[in-house]
Structure formats: C-alpha cells, structure tokens
Design brief:
heterotrimer; A: 154 residues; alpha+beta; 5-stranded mixed beta sheet; 5 strands; 32% helix; B: 282 residues; 5-stranded antiparallel beta sheet; 4-stranded antiparallel beta sheet; globular
C-alpha cells in the first residue's frame, strides 16, 4: 500500500492504495466518484477522461499513485452549485448524448479542447475529440454542442 | 482490467532511478508517461514486480536550445513538444509528426522518451528522429553514452537502451529553414499508422539540395529511405515522383489486417512523393 | 411563470430537450457497475482460449486458496441451477439446436466461453485468482469458415452430426404472392438481363459503450438482478424457464443502460453464471466485464454470404429475385439467433414491385462467438443486397441509378400494396422523399463533377451512392410471430397512475437504453391527458414496476409501446369521465374532455383531470359503484408492421493512388411517419448512419486460423471516431402509418439499414469506370486500391 494525497473536485483526500490501482478505480471505488466510467482496456474510448492539473487525461491510463500531490477534476466537479457547466448545458441543448455512457469523458475532453483552442473549426473539434468514442450520436450533435459552447464563451 | 500487483518506486533523481533499476533487476519496468505501458499491464501482457516511475524527476523534462542542436528531455510530454516554438523552428518534421500521435489526452500524458524507448514500429516519432539525425543520450551504471538514431532501434520493442539503463534526452541537430511534412496513413483516425513518411528537405530555388526521409511501420524498426533521398537531390517538385517511388527499396514491411507488404511498399512511394512535395511547398 | 403557461398547445412534434439528460451530463447516472451492496462479492470469469476443446480437468485448489477468494465454481458445481441460454426462435421443429449451458461442463465451442468463476472480495483479487485456475483441455478440430461449415467436413458440435441448423424458404410461387423465380430467370437469360452476385455481410461487433455488468442480490424474498440489458422482461422469462427459480421470485432491473444496438438483446452466460454463484453463496455478487471480454463473449452480428440472382427486362424492369443465404450463427443459436436472417426475407424486395421471388437461408454453426441481432437484424443485410443490385442493374442496362429505382418502385397511389414477399405496405411516398433528397444533395451538379473528374483522369475520383430503402418495424404482430414459430408475442404494455397531487406516473414495458423514452413518452401522455410535460414521470426497465413488457428492439418501443400508452390514457379518461360528470352534476354524455379539462357541453363548468384524480383519491364523493381509481393499463398488439422508408444519397471521394476514401456529403430524407420529438429523431438517424457507415468502411470482426478473435479490442476493431465522420444533412417527409392512432413508424434502425449500401454504392460508383463492380466490406483503402489494380490488370489482359 502507498499513501497518496490527491485533491479531487476541490476536496483533498488521503488514502492508502495499492500501487496497481488505476486512477479511475480510485475515483470510482475509493471516492465514490462513479460519474467517471470505464469503457475499454486499451485507452481507446476516452470514457474515463478527467482533468489532471487542468489537462485532460484518460484516468484508466494513470496510476492513482501517479496522481499523488496533484489535482483531479471529474465530471462531478465542473458544475457550479445548482447549475450546469456551459459545456454540460450545450450538450443538453443540442441533444449531444443518447445513452450517456461516453458523455462524462466527452464533456471533459470538450472542455479541454476549448481551453486550448477557444474558437475551433468543425475539423479541429472533430480531431480534438478523436480519443473519445461514442456509439450513439454519430458525433453530429456533439460537434454542434462544442461549437455552440465555443460561441457562447466568446 | 487491473494490472498484476507490483511495487512502486518514484525516484526524484536519475541516480536514484538507476539505483532502483539495479535493485529491481530483470523484474523492474520503467514507467514514463505510461500511455503504452498501462494498457499492456492492464491486459496482463506484462507483469513487472517493480515499476519505477520517472515522473518525479524534474531534470528529465523540458526542451532547450543547445546551440547547434535542440535537447529534449525524455520525460517531456508530447503536448509540450507540439507546443514548442524551438521544435517548430528547428525540427519542423518532429512537430508535424508529434501532432499525429494518438489523441489529445494521450499527448498530455505520453512522453517523447517513453514513446522512443517503447519502439513500436508503428509509432510516429522514430521516423522523424531518424530523418533529423537525432542522437539518443543513455545513462547507465557505467555512465553516459550517446547513440545515433540510426543505431538506436534494434527490433520491434527493442532499442539500444540496455538493462539497467535509461534514456535521458534526445539531441536533435537544428534543421532550421528545412521544409517538413509527415504523411501518416491510417484507415481510421484512432489507428496506428499503416505507414508514415517523415520528410524534411532543404531547397534552393525550388531544387532539392538535401532530402531526409524516415519511414514508419515499413519494417521492424523505423528506417531511412536512403535510395529515394539520394535520388531526390537536384530534383524539383514536378520531377521528383520517380525518386520518391524508390522509398520502399530495401525495406521489409509487415503484412496485417490493414495491408500487406506489397500495398505498404506501394504506399511508401506515393506518400513519400506527397510528403516531399508538401515539405517543399511548406 | 408556471410550467403550465409555458406549455405548447401540442407536445407531439416539439423538440423537447430530454428529461434523461441531467443525470447523464452531471455523472449521477445509475450504471449497473456503480452498484455496491453490503457484503457484495466480485466475480472473474476463466475463459477458454481454444475455439473447440474438451475440458479434461479443472483444478481450482490454488485459486480457492488465494487471498480474498471466497469460492471457485466450475460448470459442474452450478449444474443444478445454472439454467440454459435458450433460443426463442427455432425456425422449425427440425432445427438442430446445441444446448447452450452458461458454463459448459465438458466441451467448449468457441474461444471465450466461461469454464470457471472466481468469487472474491474485490475485482482485482478475483482476477488474480482466476489466473490460478488450472484447466486442461484436449483440443478438437474447429470449423471457423462459414463455407467450410456448410461442407460438414469438421463439425462445430460433433454430437449434432451436422453444422446445419436449419433451412428456411419463402417462395412467392408456393405462397401465391408471385410467380416462379426460376422461370423468370430462365426467360431473362434469353431475352433480358441477369445479374448474379455474391456479397459478403461481414461479421460485426455491436460495441455498445457500456461493457455489460450484472449484480445479483439473492438475500431477499425475491432474487434481484440488476443488469445492463435491453430486455429485462424477456430475461426474467428465460431465467424462470430454465433455472428452476419461479418467475414470481425474480425481479430484473435494467438501470441506466449504456447502449445496446441489439447487443444487449440477449440472455447471457454471464448473467446466468452470476445468478447461479450468488444463489450458491447466498451473497450479492457483481460481474463487470472488460472490453476484451465484451468483444469475444457478447454476441456478434451479420456474418452472411448472400448469393443473389436478379433478372430484368432489357429496359431495367425487374422480373424476379432469387436469394440464397449462408448464415453463420456462431457456436450457438442465440435468443433471436437463426431468426435474424429470416427477418430479412420480407425485405429483399424492398420498395420494388418484383413479380417473382424466392428467399432461402441455410443457417450453420461454427466455432466462433455466437451471432444475433445487431441494429437492423436481417434488414440491413437484405437492403444492402438489393440496393447494391439495383446499382448493378442500372450500370448493366445503362440507366441512371435513381431512374432504375423509380421504374421499379411502388407508386404513391398504389398503397396499400401487398408485396411479392406477402407483406402489406400500408403507406409510403418514395417519390416525395427522393425528390427532396435530390434537391438537398445537388445531384445533378455532383454528377457533372464526377464526369469532369473522370474525363480529366483526376487521381481523386468522385462517386455517388443511392439507397432507397424501406424496413419493417414495430415488431411485431403476435399472430405473425406465432406463425413463424417465434417463442413470444410482440405486444407492448403501458400503465398510467394518476397521482393524487396532480402528477402522473407512466409505466412502460419498453426498456430504454439511450432512446429517450422518458421524454418522448411524456410528450405523448402530456398531450393525451392534457397535463404538463413536466408532470409526467416515465418509469421503465424494472419487472416490479413495469410488470409486463416485451422490451426495446426492432424499432418497436414507440410504434407498439407508444400506442399502448395512448390506449391506457384513453382508458384513464373514460374512467374519469363519469366521476367528472358526477362532480359537475351533469350527465356523462354531456361531459367533454379537451386539453386536460372535462367541461359540460355548452357551459363554462369544468374540472381538470388532475382535480378529478384528487377527488377520486379521497373517494369522498364518487358515483355509486365506481371504484376510487383512475389508473389504467393497456396492452397493444399491432395488426401489421410499420414500414418507414427513405432516400439516402452519399458522395464519396476515392483516392485512386492509395485507395483511401473520404465522405464528401451525406443526405438522407426519411419518412418515419408522425414525429413525436424531432430532436430525438435526428439523433437516432445520425447514430444509425454512423453505424451503417462503420460497416461500409471501418468495421469487421476477424479470426485467425486458430479461432482467436484478432479484432478483440478497440485497437483493432475500429469503430469510427468524430474525426472519421462528417456532418449529415437530414430531412423528412411524413406519411403516417395507418395501423396506429399516432401514425409513427419507428426510426431506431433506419440510418443503419440505409447507409451501408449508399456508401458502398458511392465507392463503387467512383471507380466503376475503371472496371470495378464490387468491393468487399469494409471498403478499406487496401481493398479499394487492390480492386482498382485487379480491374486494371483484367482490362489489360482482356485487350491482349
């Protein structure tokens, strides 16, 4: 067991973890942050995307011990109290989700995308989301939602 | 899935890392960004007893100007290489190639050194580093040594980095003013390269003075397209097709679900022409 | 302002944002894998690495002694209660059906079958111990290729004596719905045109994003199973029918389910094994699969060879179609199983007036993962074949691809139309949908560009693909299912509870997993009962809440389940009417109901249905003999299928130097009848298109010659990402179905069914002038490039 201290969604946690524990399993099983999900075992799907020190990462491909001393933000930590993050709102308004399994990761990556490029073209949005798979939407409305969020943020 | 249990060490200096590596012996495994290693561990295709994390060694991270060359620390994430003005100006073909590595999340976490030592023949960074005549800096119990990129790659997943050694940095001679392009051919955006062509050229008045072409996934290691390079000297954009068609000479490409060896050889010629022309135009 | 003031006059047709979204976008979703119960154990499966082998021994002792392990089970340990994964659709009494035990006792029949189960205190410890289970196998010869299976040289199940499961035929001459197809072909060989082709429907993997997960709690009076399924009601039946557990003792809950596409229309070995272990141990157990396990163990789709003969007159009027299918069922007959190819039998003739038709499917077992429904199930295969053939016919007789279809399709004024396959299409307007699609696409301009690129020998050629499809949805009239030997009905159930404080609970037997039922069904009930959209709560996916149901697949939920809702709502109104009349001191005959209010005809006197509900709840002042309840339920069994249709047009660029393809534009005009929520409809079309495009260009499950799935992860099984697709242009025409009051026809599968042939037709069209008339799916760059090379060398050979 290794002692780690991690700030997750604004709250600092200290826990003993097995070194082999993936960050996503630490979030889900130790902290109960089940909004972040596991969709594959090869880091293709991106469903587990969170922010580590403000940049998007796939939490299935980070060990919990590697997050020691760092700050993690999940889908559960982005909305203001009683409200929605503009990206969450854009996904809702544009029907950018169906089953919703990819959605937390997709939203977290979309936020990162706009942080890096506040005014992306359609192609830049598509390439920025290429590490996140969705099987329901054909991405059409996801691209629309990210584009709408970018315009709303101008 | 969950990896097999292991011990975890996070040294804060290269010396400590070498010590940890020596202590772990054959059962130790270095983790850099972990973007290739963690899927392997999760699938239980590998089960090291000790994982040595280089993530807390600050000296291994960063890009600096070394005068006639650039120095990129092995633990520099792809995203930093991509964003670097130094790389864009002096090693443009690396900039072009690193933009195509995996996806944004993996580029945030994955590192140049990790990708280079992993040595997947379909990885995108070997070809541009070969084309740029990069030098790899390796440290071990016996001290530091340098290995030219052309001698660095031994086979699939095998490099000059021996047991008990670490790659610490990559030195890239400045190719200031060289045109550059990376043509990555996939059948879906997420896929590894079926093949890739990293071309960088120096031209004068529309004529090629010097051309360097690295190939991705045209063999068990990245390779230089030497015959094409030699043939390209003196040519122009509109008469370079035949020279580029020689790109596959001497290569031994794999056959898999995405294409057989003949198809890859054909692609090498077509894409080399495109890369060279794009490099000349850029 | 109150919600009531904001309310649109009619809900149906409004682009309501979904009720489901909030929990999904904030990460408060209830996936099965999120569930934690006191004392819950975690399971790991030991799976066969061999495609076909006898299990000679299993030593579980080392695993049982490993840290955190509570118990290890083999098939023999749970043999008394594990049940059987049954097929609901034996095609005939003669069908050969291997017994599909969730955990086989003696022989494994495909790689990935479960041979032992470890129960431990954590998922990691269970996985660790699973690697310590020592299984000895004697490998048996495996049959992996469908055509080889048809020879019976190697048997997937030696005890069956053959690989052939069954043969099923639909012959228009025998059925009296058309002529003799062999005569038609013979005649065309003399005086007309005969097109013979063999198309491959490659094996696909549904690849829903949520891996399957099951939690079983055996500690209460009822055994409760939470599971990532499309079919909680059907699953409960299967458990009761085969495990010895009485149906009344089983509660199945499908909480939030992350996609299915047919892939979760199954009773799975994993569900049955988890149930058996939980019952044996008397403790809650959870099993969540990895993606690699999903790929190898969850059922696959498609996998057919289609041998096709289309005959026509020289002007392109089709005179007959003969279809011979070879269908690979994999190792077992799955829930729908052998019925999947049969679902295509009525669709090969599509929107056309063919005078003669014969369909035969021969279903075979192989030692590969089982095959069952995947989005469209039978209909995409049929649509692909006929829409590819119509393009081939157009090329053969030198007629435009649109014109050849128009020449043969059923005209708008010919509906209702009974087809050569015996289906009665109640409505349709192919002319309108096609006209609109051509306009949006800019067909003539693209044809002009294509001609220019051909003339100039541009290395990037342009192709245009057409697909004018129809499908049969709203599965299904129970009598027809019975006649086809299907084991269940096709009705759907709905109940409405009028709560005392003005809100309404709607219980539906449909089980959504991304479709947006909570929103669309709320709109239907809001309109019918005249209550606010936000006052309606739709509950589903729990056999204890929505007690009766046939679940969600086959574009049936709205068509069949929506109609059940309407009928339940009408019963509520009729129950409320005499109470309203009593309260208004009027005769029931004088009371009218409109927009949520009962009024006495010709007066201002009125009472809202929610006030009637409150008065009914108190029971203080009801007419004599009237029960104090407005609640009602209805079960709707349709008289016919519904027949959505549409025209899809695709433009593809093909790089002839590399074989790479790039989608330029995609336009579809679908006619799905009445639209309840256009936002949801468009989303369904977009997602359907992506999956159909996936089959055309990206996806295919491949095995090596040892029977190992080589596309066993999302690295090698390439589903398209955002960067691989484009924005789609969607539009609609509206020709309502005539068999239901709502007039809806279903939209869940339309995009998938129509798009695959549209894309492949476009790719082939781009290089047809180079001598190419087919490219095997998925049309990878290598295949496209090689098709061009082969055509080129064939042309040169011909010239010599």
């Amino acid at each position: 067991m290794t002692r780690i201290t991690v700030k997750v969604d604004g709250v600092e946690y200290s826990d003993d973890v097995e070194p082999r524990t993936l960050l996503v399993h630490y979030l889900r099983e130790t902290l109960g942050k089940v909004g972040t999900v596991v969709g594959c075992d090869t880091s293709n799907c991106g469903a587990c995307t969170v922010h580590l020190d403000g940049r998007s990462v796939k939490s299935c491909s980070v060990l919990a011990v590697q997050a020691h001393g760092h700050e993690v933000t999940t889908i559960e930590g982005i909305a203001p109290a009683g409200g929605l993050h503009p990206m969450q709102q854009a996904f809702h308004d544009n029907h950018a989700l169906q089953c919703g399994f990819c959605t937390p990761g997709m939203i977290m990556q979309a936020i990162d995308l706009l942080a890096e490029n506040p005014d992306p073209s359609e192609q830049e949005i598509r390439e920025g989301l290429e590490g996140n798979l969705c099987r329901c939407t054909g991405y059409h409305n996801i691209v629309k939602a990210v584009s709408a969020a970018a315009k709303a943020g101008e | 899935m969950i990896p097999v249990a292991f011990e975890y060490v996070a040294p804060t200096s290269v010396a400590d890392a070498l010590g940890a590596l020596a202590a772990a012996g054959d059962d130790g495994k270095v983790i850099a960004g972990g973007q290739s290693l963690l899927p392997v561990l999760r699938m239980r295709l590998n089960a090291p007893e000790t994982v040595i994390d280089l993530g807390r060694i600050e000296s291994l991270r960063g890009i600096r100007d070394g005068g006639d060359h650039l120095v990129i620390g092995a633990m520099t994430p792809h995203a930093e290489v991509l964003a670097s003005d130094l790389v864009r100006e002096h090693a443009a073909v690396l900039h072009e190639a690193v933009a195509t590595v995996a996806d944004p999340q993996i580029r945030h976490r994955g590192t140049l050194g990790g990708a280079v030592v992993h040595a997947d023949p379909a990885g995108d960074l070997g070809a541009p580093l070969l084309a740029l005549d990069a030098t790899m800096v390796i440290v071990g119990p016996g001290g530091e040594r340098t290995v030219p990129a052309t001698e660095f790659y031994h086979d699939i997943f095998a490099t000059a980095v021996g047991d008990g050694e670490l790659l610490t940095e990559v030195r890239i001679p400045k190719h200031t003013g060289w045109g550059a392009a990376y043509e990555k051919f996939t059948r879906a955006a997420q896929q590894w390269a079926i093949i890739g062509v990293a071309a960088t050229v120096r031209t004068q008045g529309g004529q090629i003075v010097e051309a360097k072409v690295g190939l991705t996934n045209m063999g068990s290691t990245p390779v230089r397209a030497r015959a094409a390079e030699a043939d390209l000297v003196g040519r122009h954009a509109d008469d370079c097709g035949q020279a580029c068609g020689r790109a596959a000479e001497g290569t031994n490409p794999p056959s898999d679900l995405n294409g057989d060896a003949d198809y890859r050889r054909h692609l090498a010629g077509v894409l080399t022409a495109r890369a060279v022309r794009a490099a000349m135009a850029g | 302002m109150t919600a009531v003031d904001d309310r649109p006059e009619v809900e149906i047709g409004q682009a309501r944002r979904r009720k489901e979204d909030h929990r999904l976008i904030t990460g408060r979703t209830r996936w099965t894998d999120n569930i934690q119960l006191p004392g819950m154990l975690h399971l790991a499966m030991v799976r066969s690495p061999f495609a076909h082998a006898t299990i000679t021994s299993i030593d579980t002792s080392e695993a049982a002694a490993a840290p955190g392990v509570i118990a290890v089970f083999t098939g023999k340990d749970i043999a008394d209660i594990q049940g059987v994964n049954i097929t609901a659709w034996p095609l005939s009494a003669n069908q050969k059906t291997p017994t599909h035990l969730p955990v086989p006792l003696e022989r494994v029949s495909h790689a990935g079958e479960i041979v032992a189960i470890v129960a431990a205190r954590s998922a990691a410890l269970a996985r660790d111990a699973a690697e310590l289970v020592d299984v000895d196998y004697d490998e048996l010869p495996a049959v992996l290729d469908l055509k080889e299976a048809a020879t019976d040289a190697v048997l997937a199940h030696p005890d069956l004596g053959t690989n052939k499961s069954d043969v099923w035929t639909l012959d228009s001459a025998a059925a009296g719905t058309g002529g003799d197809v062999d005569e038609a072909i013979a005649k065309a060989r003399e005086t007309g045109v005969v097109i013979e082709r063999e198309y491959r429907q490659q094996r696909l993997i549904p690849a829903f994003m949520e891996p399957r997960s099951t939690v079983v709690d055996p500690t209460g009076e009822q055994v409760v199973m939470w599971t990532a399924t499309q079919v909680p009601h059907v699953l409960r039946f299967c458990i009761a029918a085969t495990t010895g557990l009485p149906e009344s003792k089983i509660r199945v809950i499908a909480p939030d389910v992350g996609g299915g596409f047919g892939g979760k229309l199954q009773s799975t070995p994993e569900e049955f094994a988890t149930l058996a272990v939980a019952r044996k141990l008397g403790r809650p157990c959870k099993y969540t699969e990895t993606r690699s396990e999903t790929m190898v163990s969850g059922h696959h789709g498609r996998d057919q060879w289609q041998r096709l003969t289309l005959c026509a007159t020289k002007d392109g009027t089709v005179t007959g179609l003969k279809v011979d299918l070879l269908a690979d069922l994999g190792a077992y007959a799955a829930l729908v199983g052998g019925g999947v190819p049969v679902l295509g039998a009525w669709m090969f003739n599509a929107i056309y007036k063919f005078p003669a038709y014969r369909f035969t499917t021969s279903n075979y077992y192989t030692n590969k993962t089982w095959v069952d429904a995947y989005r469209g199930a039978g209909r995409p295969e049929a649509t692909y074949a006929i829409e590819r053939l119509m393009d081939e016919l157009a090329a053969e007789v030198g007629v435009d691809a649109i014109a050849i279809r128009e020449k043969n399709w059923i005209k708008h004024d010919e509906f209702p139309f009974t087809t050569v396959a015996g289906m009665t299409y109640d409505s349709g307007n192919y002319e309108a949908a096609t006209e609109r699609a051509l306009e949006l696409f800019g067909y003539d301009a693209l044809r002009a560009e294509q001609a220019q690129r051909r003339a100039s020998g541009d290395p990037v050629q342009l192709g245009i693909g057409v697909s004018t499809f129809t499908e049969m949805c709203g599965l299904a009239p129970s009598r027809i299912l019975g006649a086809l030997n299907y084991g269940a009905g096709g009705w759907e159930n709905a109940s409405i509870r009028m709560l005392s404080t003005g809100t309404v609970e709607v219980l539906t037997g449909a089980s959504a997993h991304g479709q947006g039922h909570e929103t669309a069904f709320s709109q239907i009930v809001a309109d019918r009962l005249g209550v606010p959209f936000d006052s309606v709560e739709v509950l589903h996916g729990d056999t204890q809440i929505s007690t009766k149901g046939m679940d969600t697949y086959g574009s049936r939920s709205l068509v069949v389940g929506g109609e059940a809702l309407v009928r339940a709502a009408d019963k509520v109104i009729e129950k409320a009417r005499p109470i309203a009349a009593h309260l208004l001191e009027a005769s029931a005959d004088d009371v009218e109901f409109s927009a949520g209010t009962f009024t006495v005809r010709g007066t201002e006197k009125g009472i809202s249905i929610t006030d009637v509900a409150l008065q009914t709840w108190t029971g203080h002042n009801l007419p004599d003999g009237v029960e104090p309840s407005l609640d009602a339920d209805a079960t709707f069994d349709p008289d016919n299928f519904s027949f959505p249709h549409g025209t899809h047009l695709c433009a593809m660029e093909v790089d002839t130097e590399t074989g790479a393809t790039r989608m330029r534009s995609y336009v579809c005009v679908d006619d799905i009848g009445t639209v309840i929520n256009p936002l949801i409809v468009e989303g369904q079309v977009h997602g359907g298109l992506a999956q159909g495009i996936g089959q055309a260009l990206f996806e295919g499950a491949e095995y090596d010659d040892q029977g190992t799935l080589t596309t066993g992860s999302l690295v090698d099984y390439t589903i398209p990402s955002a960067a691989d697709l484009i924005n789609f242009v969607t539009d609609r025409t509206t020709t309502p179905a005539t068999y239901t009051s709502l007039g809806t026809k279903g939209v869940g599968e339309a995009g998938t069914i129509a798009s695959t042939p549209a894309v492949v037709n476009a790719v082939v069209d781009a290089v047809r002038h180079l001598g190419v008339n087919d490219i095997v799916m998925p049309c990878t760059p290598e295949r496209v490039w090689k098709a061009i090379q082969h055509a080129g060398s064939a042309a040169n050979g011909g010239a010599q």
